[in-house]
Design goal:
Layout (H helix, E strand, L loop, with lengths): L1 H14 L14 E6 L5 E8 L2 E4 L11 E7 L6 E8 L2 E6 L2 E4 H7 L12
Antiparallel strand pairs: 1-2, 1-4, 2-3, 4-5, 5-6, 6-7
Length: about 120
């Protein structure tokens, strides 16, 4: 019986996502997805209430393309995160694992992002 409890606890711990982008994403926070060379803006979004609203029309990156996510909280310097474009989402690197940006926004920060960041 203890083994089952331990396995359930381990599964819950592994399933939990880290607050990779910081403790909170307050209204006015902006996210910008750029190419590695910073020449192409693939998309920009702003947190409004609990929603993620687009600021620009997306320019889809190629699947598997390395990208940079710039996160700008109100009144703070932007932070950059490396990621890989994947079917309308970005997989961010977190402790040797790739974490879905859309899942992170939804499950950790309680936002309502679009189903896909680009078509």
């Amino acid at each position: 019986m203890r083994l089952w409890a331990w396995l359930l606890l381990l599964g819950a711990a592994l399933a939990a996502l880290p607050p990779l982008l910081g403790p909170a994403l307050p209204p006015g926070t902006e996210l910008r997805l750029l190419s590695q060379d910073l020449r192409t803006l693939h998309g920009a979004w702003r947190v409004e209430g609990r929603r993620l609203l687009p600021l620009s029309s997306p320019v889809p990156p190629r699947p598997g393309q390395e990208v940079q996510l710039l996160l700008a909280l109100p009144g703070e310097k932007p932070k950059a995160f490396l990621g890989v474009a994947e079917r309308g989402d970005v997989l961010l690197l977190a402790e040797r694992e790739r974490v879905s940006l859309l899942r992170l926004l939804k499950e950790v920060y309680g936002l309502t992002p679009p189903e896909r960041l680009w078509p």
